[in-house]
Amino acid sequence: MSNINNFVGKNGKILIVDDEPYNTRVLKLKFENAGYKVVTASNGLDGLNKFKMEYPDVVITDIRMPVMTGWEMCLSLKESMKERRFLIIVITATIDNTERLWVNEINNANLVEKPISPNYLLTLVEDYLNEPA
Amino acid sequence: MKISEILKPLSEMIPVADFTGKGEKSRHAPVDLQLIDKGKINSESSEETISRLRLTNRLLAYNVSKFETVIDNLNDGVIILDSSNRVLAINHIMEQLLSLKRDEIKGKHIKECISRNKIFTFIMEHYESIDKLVEKTADLNVGLSNLRVSYKTLIRGDGNSCGSLLIAKDITSQKLAEQAKVEFLSHVSHELKTPINTIKGYTEMLVKGEVSNRETLLEFYNTVNEEADRLASLINNLLNLSKIEMGSLALSKSMTRTKEFLENIFKMAASQDKKNIHYELILSEKIPPLNIDKELMKTVLINLIGNAAKYTPEGGRITLRAEESGDKFMMHVIDTGIGISEEDMPHVFEKFYRSSDEQVRKKTGHGLGLAIANQIVDLHNGEIKVISKKGDGSQFSIVLPIGEGYFLE
């Protein structure tokens, strides 16, 4: 696992927001293997609180969650977007009119349709973090 | 009696001449009957002519009332304009929709009628060009109703237009059904993609060799295995639910030896135990045979016992108790699990409803099991009741009618 060790010490914190424990489990493992620090939350409100405390570079969120949906959370994050740069990846079951409307509203959200490939998400994140700000 | 009074229905019928194609002259110049009374129009004065007119008039009045009865009995709102855009007829429903009274508007030009209703606005926008439009349709929201409004030119047998007709159909329930279908599909794709997503993520990690230690490997294999089962049960539940909802699920009832039926299900459920739960079966002395669809009723019990097992912690207890009570048969599934909050209680049988409670969300589920159980019991003319308190276990009771014959298969 030396290739994984190479990544250790990388700067980058990922916030994963999903109410499905399996999803957070697998993504946490994927990003930790790649050397990132991972924080998880189980709904939008929880995600919002973790965001304020942890200053993540990337937010990966599901949409349908109890208490607060992923989109509602993104809406609340809009103010923070003006203050600092971070990547939002929204994981969705379907891309339909509602999703398109929301993407217009949260204009820097990246929609990724299920079933997601953890590897693809890692590529998205790495591309973003390697981009000159 | 004044001639004008005798001829009043005739004057109302003048626009009808449009429809016969023989009234070209009178169409734009209705006879002012007052003039006949005043002797300014030379009318034939013989008794014979008057009685002929009376007969014609009675026939016309009869036809008018027949025509009005028909359109008043339609379920849709109807208003008919003649070729000069005067109101020829309006039915009860349209009177209500437009808040106009037929006695006040009949024979009047549409411009002279005043209504703020959207349907009226729709007519006003199109009546001048209706000959060219032939038909114009729109969906309008009027109050809480959705109306499909269709405004069309009336074409006579000889191809000429003779007025226009507007029909307003209430499509509220249709719209609600469409919306429900869209929501259902969105739920379904969401629910189907959840286990597929897990399977995809977990297998990708396995394939890429990112899971190294034995324990995690086993955990990953188990998860994939469980999610495949979840997907299969979800598909079954969805099929059953849509069959029930389309009314195409025919019960295949047979007289069933209830005791054996319950014992078998109980044994099967208990054998699935992974949490050291104590399973208990309590059957009263006298268990009547039941006329049920065995496969479907098994689904109900498996769903109930499965839920009980899901939400009952390690070392808990699940009891299946069955008893006869008057002309009813009761089957109770009782657990010592996490219980149902007051807030969730009214929604437990709603399809796709899942509690927002953390304790519930920790467990996988798609919110269909109880909805299906409820529908199946309903098809058996029975009902499911639930007694529960958060933190204090749940009791689901199936109440079935007995007495549909005691003949065993």
Explain what the structure shows.
The complex is a heterodimer of chains A (133) and B (409). With 133 residues, chain A is of the alpha/beta class. Chain A has one domain (11-118): 3-Layer(aba) Sandwich (Rossmann fold). Chain A is built from 6 helices and 5 strands; from the N terminus they run αβαβαβαβαβα. Chain A has helices at 2-5, 21-33, 44-54, 70-83, 97-105, 118-130, and strands at 13-17, 37-41, 58-62, 87-92, 109-113. In chain A, α3 (44-54) packs parallel to α4 (70-83). Chain A is globular. Mean pLDDT of chain A is 87; it is low at 1-8. Chain B is α+β, with helices and mostly antiparallel strands and 409 residues long. In chain B, the strands form 3 sheets. Chain B has a 5-stranded antiparallel sheet with strand order 2-1-5-4-3, with helices on both faces. A 5-stranded mixed sheet of chain B has the order 7-9-10-12-11. In chain B, β4 (145-155) and β5 form a beta hairpin. Chain B is elongated, with a radius of gyration of 35 Å. Chain B starts with a helix and ends in an 8-residue tail after the last strand. Mean pLDDT of chain B is 84; it is low at 23-29. Classes of the chains: A alpha/beta (133), B alpha+beta (409). Chain A binds chain B through residues 1, 4, 19-23, 26-27, 29-30, 33, 42-43, 64, 66-67, 93-94, 96, 114-119, and chain B through 186, 189-190, 193-194, 196-202, 204-205, 208, 210-212, 216, 223, 227, 354-356, 358, 361-362, 364.
Query: What is the number of domains of chain A?
Result: 1
Class per helix and strand makeup of chain B = alpha+beta
Gap from first CA to last CA of chain A = 31 Å
CATH uppermost class of chain A: Alpha Beta
CATH topology of chain A: Rossmann fold
| SSE succession of chain A | HEHEHEHEHEH
Strand order of the largest sheet of chain A: 2-1-3-4-5
- Please give the oligomerization state of what you see: heterodimer
